[in-house]
């Protein structure tokens, strides 16, 4: 998920008033702790969070950053947009397709570019507001009903061969 890149971007931002919140499995080992130790910002490692609690975390985020190198779809990006979080994500993965023009897209290998995108969201309320609104609109383009229909269409096309 490129936590090292995100930690590098947070180090460049050098903002002790921000808290970086990491959600998900805790299998990062000591590497995350070592990298986080040098940050001006605290890092809150929440581990597994119940699905019902995620929308509140997304909605309360100043920015949702998902600079992944590879994704099959990018459900966390869609969930964050649906909750109204301004999103910064990877330009060259499936997350770019999910986000469209409703997020700031960055090269996940470019730590300075990632920090710049986060700074744009954090420092310009109009950018954050535009991303929040665009993300909410974009999220309506995806639904579980549509996903099920498309999946069924694929199965039918394979069976018809």
Structural features:
two-stranded parallel sheet, 52% helix, 8 helices, 12% strand, globular, 5 strands, mainly alpha, three-stranded parallel beta sheet, 161 residues
Explained architecture:
The chain is mainly α and 161 residues long. 52% of the residues lie in helices and 12% in strands. The protein is built from 8 helices and 5 strands. The chain has helices spanning 3-13, 30-37, 54-59, 75-82, 94-99, 111-123, 125-139, 144-159, and strands at 20-23, 43-47, 64-66, 87-90, 104-106. The strands form 2 sheets. Strands 3-4-5 form a 3-stranded parallel sheet, sandwiched between helices. Helix 1 crosses helix 6 (111-123) and helix 4 (75-82) packs across helix 7 (125-139). The longest helix is centred in the C-terminal third of the chain and has 16 residues, at 144-159. It is globular and about 60 Å long.
Topology:
Elements: H1 3-13, E1 20-23, H2 30-37, E2 43-47, H3 54-59, E3 64-66, H4 75-82, E4 87-90, H5 94-99, E5 104-106, H6 111-123, H7 125-139, H8 144-159
Parallel strand pairs: 1-2, 3-4, 4-5
Helix pairs in contact: 1-6, 4-7, 6-7
Helix fraction, binned, reads 40-55%
Largest sheet: 3 strands, parallel
Order of helices and strands: HEHEHEHEHEHHH
Rounded radius of gyration (Å): 17 Å
State the secondary-structure class.
mainly alpha
The fraction of residues assigned to DSSP E strands is 5-15%
State the end-to-end distance.
37 Å
SS field, number of helical segments? 8
Mean pLDDT: 90
Low-confidence segments, given as residue ranges, are none
Strand adjacency order, main sheet? 3-4-5
Q: How many strands?
A: 5
Shape: globular
């Amino acid at each position: 998920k490129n936590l090292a890149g995100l930690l590098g971007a947070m180090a460049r931002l050098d903002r002790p008033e921000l808290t970086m919140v990491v959600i998900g499995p805790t299998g990062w080992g000591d590497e995350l702790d070592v990298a986080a130790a040098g940050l001006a910002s605290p890092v809150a490692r929440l581990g597994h969070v119940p699905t019902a609690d995620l929308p509140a975390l997304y909605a309360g985020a100043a920015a949702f950053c998902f600079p992944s190198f590879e994704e099959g779809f990018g459900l966390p990006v869609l969930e964050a947009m649906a909750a109204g979080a301004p999103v910064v994500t990877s330009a060259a993965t499936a997350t770019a397709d999910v986000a469209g023009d409703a997020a700031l897209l960055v090269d996940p290998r470019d730590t300075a570019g990632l920090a710049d995108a986060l700074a744009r969201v954090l420092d310009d309320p109009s950018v954050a507001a535009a991303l929040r609104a665009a993300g909410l609109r974009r999220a309506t383009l995806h639904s579980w009903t549509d996903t099920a229909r498309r999946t069924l269409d694929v199965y039918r096309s394979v069976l018809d061969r």
